[in-house]
Each structure stands twice: as C-alpha cells, then as structure tokens.
Amino acid sequence: MTSSSKTPLHSVIASVTERIRVRSIASRNAYLKKCQSMRRKGTQRGQLSCSNLAHGFAACNDDDKALIRLEEAANIAIVSAYNDMLSAHKPLEYYPDLIREAVSELGCTAQFAGGTPAMCDGVTQGAEGMELSLFSRDTIAMSTAIALTHNMFDAVLCLGVCDKIVPGLLIGALSFGHLPLIMIPAGPMSTGLSNDEKARIRQLYAEGKVGREALLDAEASAYHGEGTCTFYGTANSNQMLMEAMGLHVPGTAFVPPNGPLREQLTRTAAQQVCKITSLTPNYTPLCDVVDERSLVNAIVTLLATGGSTNHSIHWIAIARAAGIIIDWQDFSELSEATPLLCRIYPNGTADINHFHAAGGTGFVIAELLAAGLLHADVNTVWGKGLHHYIQAPTLAGGSLHWQKSPSISADREVLRPVTEPFDPHGGMKLLTGQLGRSIIKVSAVKPEHRYVKAPAIVFDTQETLKEAFDSGELERDFIAVVRFQGPKANGMPELHKMTPYLGILQERGFKVALVTDGRMSGASGKIPAAIHLYPEAIAGGPIAKIQNGDMLVLDTDKEILEILISADELAQRQPARSEPAANSDNYGRDLFAGLRANVGTAEEGAATFL
Predict the structure, then answer these.
(1) Is the overall model pTM greater than 0.90, yes or no?
(2) Which residues fall in the annotated binding site for [4Fe-4S] cluster?
(3) How far apart are alpha carbons 447 and 297 in whole angstroms?
(4) What pLDDT, in 10s, does the model give residues 135-175?
(5) Which residue numbers delimit the Dihydroxy-acid/6-phosphogluconate dehydratase N-terminal domain (predicted)?
C-alpha cells in the first residue's frame, strides 16, 4: 500500500478526534494561554536579571559564557534520566558531551539542566519498590519542571527511554510548552535468549523443575547488555509513540545503541532543536506539536502494534498536561477501527529487533497513513506532516541520509500491511459492568480464552495467589480477583509475579482469568486480564465486595465484566477492608503517602497533580 497524505481520514478517527477536541475546548484554551504567557521576544534568558544570568553561566567555559552573555543564540536544556543501573539508559551517559559539541557547531550552547529519577521495573518487579513505580512518573515530571524553571533555555532535549520516564519527561516539558522539545532515545539491546525460551524457563522454575541458577542464567542471557529490553513492553511502546507524535528525529526509535548511526542521530537531534527555537523562522513549540491529532495518532499506533496497556493511563495523563481530555471510550472506539499489524513478544515470538528489521516504525506509520488511520497534517519536530516518519535513517560517508521505509514487510510473521492484518481490530478493549470500568489487552490472548465464566477466588496480594498455587488449591476453573492494588492503595504496582502461575494453569486446560485494580503493563501476555478496574477496592469499589465463589463473567466480545448477583445484593454487601501489612511503609513508601492520597483514577491518568 502506498502512503499518501491525501487519503481521506477514517470516519472513526475523525469523529473521535473531533469529540476530544470539543470536549477539551476550555482546558486546551487555558493551556495554550499559559504557554503564550511564557513566550517572549529574543532568548528566554533575556528576561533574567544580571545577577540571575551570571549565576546561570558561572560554571561555563569562556566560549560558552560569551555566547550566553550575547543573548543571540539558543541555549539548549539537557534533561536526562541517565543512571548506571538501568540498561536502557546506560548509553545516555555520554550524550551530553555529544550534544554540547553538536550545538556548538551552530553557534549555540547546551547545559545539563537537570537529572531525573529512572526506575527499572525489571529490577523492582514483584518487590516493594514497584509500589513507587507509577508515582515515579509524576516525580520525573516535577524534576523536569525544576530543571526548566530557571528560564535559561530556548529549547529542550529530553534523554529517556523506559516506562514511566518518557511520559514523565513529556508531562514535565508540557508545562513549558512554549519551548521546542525533541526526545532522544538510546535504542534496544541486541537479541539474546529468546523471549519464548525465557518464558519457558520461568515457567519451569515456577513448577519447581529447575533451580535458581538455571533461572538466573536464562535471565542473564536475555538481559545481557546496554539498551532497552527487547520485548514490546512499555519502554518500546514509548519509542513507537514518540515517532507517531513527531517528537523524534525520524526513524530513531529502534536503532541499536552505541554505534555510529546512533551517535549521528543524537547529534542531529541536538542540531535540529536549535533550528526550531523562537529565534528561527521555523519556531515549533511543543504545544503546537502535542494536540488532539498527534495524541490520537499515538493511540492508533499503540493499538496497531499491540502496545502496552500502561499507556491507557500514561497517554491520558500526557493529554491532560496539554489541556486535552481523553478517556477509555476513545481508546475503545479507536481500537475497533484499527487493525493489528504486529506480532512482537508478548503478542508473538519476535522481539523488537526483528520488528525493526522487518520494516519497523516507518512501515507501520506508512500503512496507517495510507489507510487514513492517522492524521497526516500534524506538526512535528522535523517539519509539517507525519510523512517525514515513513523514512528510515542510514549512514553514508559519515553523514545521515533518509530513505523511504520498505513498502513490503520483510517478515510477515512479525509485520503485516493494513490489507492483511493479524486481527481486524486493535489489541485493547474497555470492559464495563457492575464492577466498574477496566481495560483488557487481547492482542496476545487466543480467541478461545477471550470468554471466561468461572467462580471468583479473591486475593489481597500476589503472594497469597502464589501460596494457593503452591498448595494445589488452584487446580480448577476460576477468575483470580487480586484487589487493593490500585493507585490509592499501594501505588498500583505491576503484577507480573502472578503471570507464570496463571499461565501454567491455563496450559493445563483450566479456564482462568484475572480481575484487578492493579496494572500488568505491556507484558500482560496470554492470560485474559481485566486490569485498572475502578472504583478501586480501597475506595470502596464493588471489587471489594466480591466473595469467593461469586460467579464472574469476562466477555471481551461483548466488552463486559460482570458479577452474576443482583444489583441489590451487591449494594447491600459491605466492602472488604485492607489493613496495612507490616512494614508496608518501608523502602521509601512512606514518602509517597501524600501522592497515594491525592491520586486520581486510572481513567484520569492516575495523576497526582492534574
């Protein structure tokens, strides 16, 4: 299919976008007014007093100090989420030097404006630290704002890759929407042990058939170097969506780290952001790039690729930071209109490097544009029009060149055209019913598992489910209800610790499903899981009234999650209460009590300040 910006926009994409625009008129206008109030003629630092400005350049070398004093050229803020422990962010260590060098070639300057926290959910999965994970997004947003609030900068380069980090950086930068922004990723690690084999070893360990050494060997073979984890979870979904929103240098998302192409892409991002400041004729502030059209483009691309369910929370929060109101009904209708084009683990066996080799981001965007499923006439950091993002970068003679991405998939088991999708619909659905509203990702769930009617078994922690599995109590059809895992309860941790046990039971032929007010992220996999359910248990939601043996129905075709008792009986039940476990405020969790108290619902983006 040939890409064309002239293809009529799909009627559902058009109607959902218009509904979002109309719903958001007041909040969007207020946001744009705020951004306008921060714009000024000349450099941003021109409004600082001499004492303020002198503090701002005091530590610069003489050349940069002279340039900053002149107030004629852009000074670029570098906001980085680098740390040594997070493999995806380790390559960012040397980027500030590359950036300073690149912008100096244009007569500009760059300063490392601030670092932000960066949690690795792979390290904290199933542990206490996971309860800080969701709130780290808002902490990163606030850290970004602190970095930018000095008014020294004319544009921003945000260095980050992983789950909460990209949304946090973007939310923080949107508070300074009058500044241009380019996001700089680092790329995925090379393929190691296949994701399927890793999952097989994990399952053997859960069954007691291999020991810790074999499991650690498998994990270390899968996670073996610098770069993003290779499955299509939240981190890699972030990168796909940054392309779809026009916030990357085109084709940057999945270029491997530490090679000459990656280095040149980083240098190019640094120079490009200098070319779109208010000091140039091509001024492109962030508030003009992030609008209802680019946000819909991001959601459609998420659905077409089977991306992370975390983004049914994060992209709502990002939208609200730009004054735009999006809800799960929007996600659901866009999902119905969007074909599933990708099979990347956990939705298939291929990893993100296979996806990149098969055609990658350029192929996906070209297909969706050609089908009228994306807004073509959007603003991007690379110029007007999303067509820029159907290109792939190459390096020739030390210089970057872009060529059109392949129009034919190099591997149809991984990537397909719109005319022959893996599924006619996207991978995410909204479930409603007496228990509330929840999200389910079905792209990795086989059709025979998309309807489950079974009695509930209620758990208040992941650990008690494991104990029940170990004791043989779960050898039957059931729907696991894991509650008191919402944002107000304990920060809404991801619950992957349960996945191997539920997977084993499903493979043994039992009908199993999960219902929870917690999260599962992009790696939710083959188990039907109604997640992000709200009202959450600790707020007295109906999930707190479910009792062992209650018959539940999870039906993805009809998009319902129901409890088969009368509304009167449910109303008369008293909700269960959860007492804080011993030491539940250790590992820093005590410091986040205020955020738990103030957080909104998952469908409101689980934000603490919006």
Answers:
(1) yes
(2) 162, 229
(3) 27
(4) 999 999 999 999 999 999 999 999 999 999 999 999 999 99
(5) 75-387
